[in-house]
Specification:
Length: 189
């Protein structure tokens, strides 16, 4: 009889231990409050802005989860951190520079391990062919996932401008350098 009780006790102990292990491994059980997420997101936004201005697109890409999806203006869906980094580099390579980047978090929704940030942005962007930057203002929605290491990573990101295409084109045209300014006063051959 004692052997059966010992085996039964050992089995119950095994089930309890296994349950504790599964509980500890379940990512959905690692939670963050919305207020904590909002504070982390504000810190991320400041670093993100600094990295964009400095042209450090690898650091920007590191804010994204490996399986992230970006829905950019005037472009197709971009899937995966590596593709996002390539898109950032290609879009900004040698042709334009961010002069100002300002993100404002309007609201953060969600709980536990998934959060949605709704925000606005102001971005100054200067192309080599411009005398001064064009200011773009718009809004964005970013979905963050709480990772097992406690960091927040972007899983979905989209934004769009408040400016009409006509207004953006007019602003860009007003800031264009003349041929003389672009060639340093030298005539084109």
């Amino acid at each position: 009889m004692r052997t059966k009780l010992t085996i039964a006790f050992a089995f119950v102990l095994y089930l309890f231990s296994f349950s504790c292990y599964i509980y500890a491994q379940d990512d959905s059980l690692h939670n963050m409050t919305t207020d904590q997420a909002k504070e982390k997101i504000k810190q991320i936004n400041q670093k993100w802005a600094d990295y964009m201005i400095s042209g450090n697109y690898q650091a920007v890409a590191d804010f994204y989860a490996d399986e992230a999806v970006v829905l950019p203006n005037n472009s197709k869906i971009i899937r995966g951190k590596d593709a996002i980094k390539k898109h950032l580099e290609d879009e900004n390579k040698d042709t334009q520079k961010f002069t100002t980047v300002d993100f404002k978090t309007v609201d953060v929704l969600g709980s536990n391990n998934l959060f949605v940030e709704i925000g606005t942005y102001k971005i100054g962007l200067q192309k080599k062919t411009m005398n001064k930057p064009v200011l773009d203002e718009g809004k964005y929605v970013t979905v963050y996932k709480l990772m097992p290491d406690g960091s927040l990573k972007v899983v979905v990101d989209t934004d769009n401008t408040d400016m009409s295409v006509k207004d953006l084109q007019n602003a860009a045209m007003q800031n264009m350098k003349t041929d003389n300014e672009m060639t340093g006063g030298k005539k084109k051959k």
